[in-house]
């Protein structure tokens, strides 16, 4: 069995970040802020966050700010709750949350809650349980959950629960591992995990492991490294992670590495990208792979960062 090519992955991420001055290139231009989060969190998990220029990244992030209080995916782009969370997460990594106008950012996020408790992603109003998670995660990191109606938010998420124990994007929507992560994460952060049938959901999630050891996102789909994150995090939060074969999943993730040039892909021999590199390393973190820092399954940030935010240590 191969080993994690950590040095190569660090080089790969740094090279991606440098291609046009800041974190971008293989990451589509309007998603640069997300790319920064994936890349920088990977570096931190590998103990190498110190190789980047913090001031340069922080000032670029601030320049993605919109007058509404939200952040766009890049300079001059429209704000969206998804990019706003990525900015908060990156600033949390650097212990730089104080550069934010926290009231303004949290007002922007809280303002996206709808009457039924759901959240829209931006002013255009698309509703999805992903946005419920993003809002709750973001406001929790900013210590501003009191700005939303948490009870209604939880009620909406619970209304998206299916008979198979999973969750969909809206009431009646098909269960999907990514969506399940968002709903379980939001329920975990708000102390509402009692709404989940843990055995039923745990069973559905464990069935995502296929012969190769990898995990898929729905029945009959191909395995993909990113589900190592969505599925494992959900299993950890509901205390059922011992139901999957950890060794086989480690082998699957390692088989998706480009051991020459660095980076991790969705499946063996596919092209690597920052997104799957992050989810591969984060998955290995959940599998307690040596040399990878622990990551929090709900906040998707290293455990030491989460501890600093909530316990000041
Ligand atoms: Zn994927």
From TrEMBL:
Superkingdom of source: Eukaryota
CC cofactor note: Binds 1 zinc ion per subunit.
Cofactor: Zn(2+)
Start and end residues of each Prenyltransferase alpha-alpha toroid domain: 4-300
Record-level GO BP terms: gametophyte development; root development
CDD domains given in the database record: GGTase-II
Record text on subunit structure and interactions: Heterotrimer composed of the alpha subunit RGTA, the beta subunit RGTB and REP; within this trimer, RGTA and RGTB form the catalytic component, while REP mediates peptide substrate binding.
Protein task: Required for male fertility and root tip growth.
Protein name from the UniProt record: Geranylgeranyl transferase type-2 subunit beta
Organism name: Parasponia andersonii
Lineage: Eukaryota, Viridiplantae, Streptophyta, Embryophyta, Tracheophyta
